[in-house]
Amino acid sequence: MAQLSLHSPVGDLTVTEEEGKIISLDWGWVPEKWQASTPLLERAIDQLNRYFDGEIGDFDLPVAPPGTEFQKKVWAEMLKIPSGQIKTYGEIAKTLNSAAQPVGTACGANPIPIIIPCHRILAAGGKMGGYSGDGGLETKKALLRLEKALPMEQQSLDI
Q1: Could you name the active-site residues (predicted)?
Q2: CA distance linking residue 25 with residue 111, whole number of Å
Q3: What is the CB neighbour count within 10 angstroms for residue 63?
């Protein structure tokens, strides 16, 4: 398992690779002695930097998030949402023949946020819902602003 950290506009992030796939993205900085550069991690860091610079909206990285089969189905649906677009928990639930609440729970358990774009999922009526990443809803709103996907009624800093 290799890890590599980067500074980003939403805080320090650490990307973890195992067996040639990204398995997590966490907030925080791993001490230098535990960091290891690999071609995949370098590619991930490059794509994240380009994402935050507004040069790309979606990622082209192999991912293998650990989770239940249902969670993996939800995360696969998230990966289908292009940058600049949003869906609701209910829309994802309907696709999976499920309910919105378990979809929201799976979103909150996403081990690779940003790359698997759980921030692109909103509650019914354009409400923000939740965000488990560092900074909570402010981080979710910042990512949606970056992608120009934030509904107009949500553009202000208040939640």
Answers
A1: 118 (nucleophile)
A2: 6
A3: 18
Instruction: Yes or no: say if 110 and 65 are a contact pair by the CB < 8 Å rule.
Output: yes
Give the residues across from 24 on adjacent strands: 16
User: For domain 69-151, which architecture applies?
Assistant: Orthogonal Bundle (1.10)
Known catalytic residues are 118
Is the Cβ–Cβ distance between 96 and 74 less than 8 Å? yes
Q: What is the rounded CA–CA span in Å between residue 111 and residue 5? A: 16
Q: Which residue has the tokens 């923000």?
A: 128
Each domain of the chain, given as residue ranges in start order, spans 2-53, 69-151
